[in-house]
Amino acid sequence: MKNLRKQFPAHKTQTYLNTAGVGLLSETVFDFKADKNLDLLTLGSEFMQKHETIYAEVREAVAEFLNGKAQYVTLVPNFSIGFNTLLEATPQNTNFLLLKEDYPSVNMPVEARNFTIDYVHIQENLEEAIYKAFKIKQPKVFVFSIVQYLNGIKLSQEFIKELKKDFPDTILVADGTQYCGTEIFAFENSGIDVLGVSAYKWLNAGLGAGFFMFKPEVENFFKPKMLGYGSNLGKYKEQPDCFIGKFEAGHLDATNIGSLLPAINLIKQTGQENIQLYLEELSGKVKTALSNLNLLEKSVVNRKQHSTIFNLKGDDALFKKLMAKNIICSQRGEGIRVSFHHYNTVEDLNKLLEIIT
C-alpha cells in the first residue's frame, strides 16, 4: 500500500481516521479536477464538446469495476438524489423493510412517502432477524446499507445472495456508500437489484460523484418520470424511453462525475483484491485492540465479519482530546467513530491507542 498511500498527502499532517465521513482526495484525482476546471476556464462552451464522451466512459468504468452493465449505470451527484428519484418511481403503498438505525438518507426518504414500512433493529444476529422479517412481513422492497455508518456492521455478500435466492420477488436496494472500494464486488452476481453509491468516501472520488446500478428486471416495477434535455443525450441513452435517462434530466458535472475515472483507475493499479486483504488484516488488528479495551459494543465484538468502521465508547471530552492530538474522527450516535482505509496503518492505530489508554 506504500505507493498508493503516497497519493494522499492529507494523511501526512494528521492521523486521519474519518474516511466514513469524507474520503481523502488523491493527487491523481486532484490533478484531474484541476485540468478539467482549467479547460472550462479557458474554453467556455467548447468544454462541453471536448468532454462529451466522458459520461459514457464513466458508465463503462463503473460497470467494469463492479461487474455490471454500462447501459444500466446512471450517474448522479450523490446517493440521495438518485434514491429520491427512485422512490418517486415506486408505486404507493409498497411494503418496505428497513433497518431501524440505518443511515438517515436511507430511511428518511422512505418514511416521508406513502409506503407501508416494517423495521429490523441492527443487532448482533442481524442476518437472522432480517431473514425472519422476510418470512413474516414478505416485503416488496428491502432497502439497506451494506455497511452501517454508525458502527460498521456489515452484511456479507453470501447472506445477500442467499436472501435473494430464497425471496426472489423482493427487490433488494442497497446503499454501497460505506462499502464500495473496500473489497471485490460483482453486482451481476450479488443478489442486489439496485445499488446506489456516493463515491466521495471509500472510492475517494471527491464530492459530487455518485452512481446507481440496476438489474434490467427492475424496469418492470420502478417507473421514473423525471425528464429533461439530458434524458436522451449521449451513448447508452439514445432510446426515447431510456430508463437511466430518467435519472439524468439535466446537465451533469463533467469534472465531478468524471473524477470516478482516475479514482477507479487508482484502485485498479493497486488491485482491489490487495486492498481487500490489507483492510481485512488491519480491521482484525483494530477490532482486537479495541475489544481488549472493552471499547466496542457487544454486537460488534461477537460478529465474525466486520468492516473497518468502529464506534468507540467515549464522551465529548475524549473526542475533543483526540481532535486536539490531530486524530481526525467523528462523533456518531453515543460514541466516537473511527474508520481505517488503505492509506491507514498500524501506526495510526497505535497513535489512537496512546490517547485512549
UniProtKB/TrEMBL annotation:
Database matches in Gene3D superfamilies: Aspartate Aminotransferase, domain 1, Type I PLP-dependent aspartate aminotransferase-like (Major domain)
InterPro entries linked: Aminotrans_V_dom, PyrdxlP-dep_Trfase, PyrdxlP-dep_Trfase_major, PyrdxlP-dep_Trfase_small
Domain Aminotransferase class V: 45-352
Keyword vocabulary terms for this entry: Aminotransferase, Pyridoxal phosphate, Transferase
One Gene Ontology MF term: transaminase activity
A Pfam family: Aminotran_5
Annotated protein name in UniProt: Aminotransferase class V-fold PLP-dependent enzyme
Origin species: Haloflavibacter putidus
Lineage: Bacteria, Pseudomonadati, Bacteroidota, Flavobacteriia, Flavobacteriales
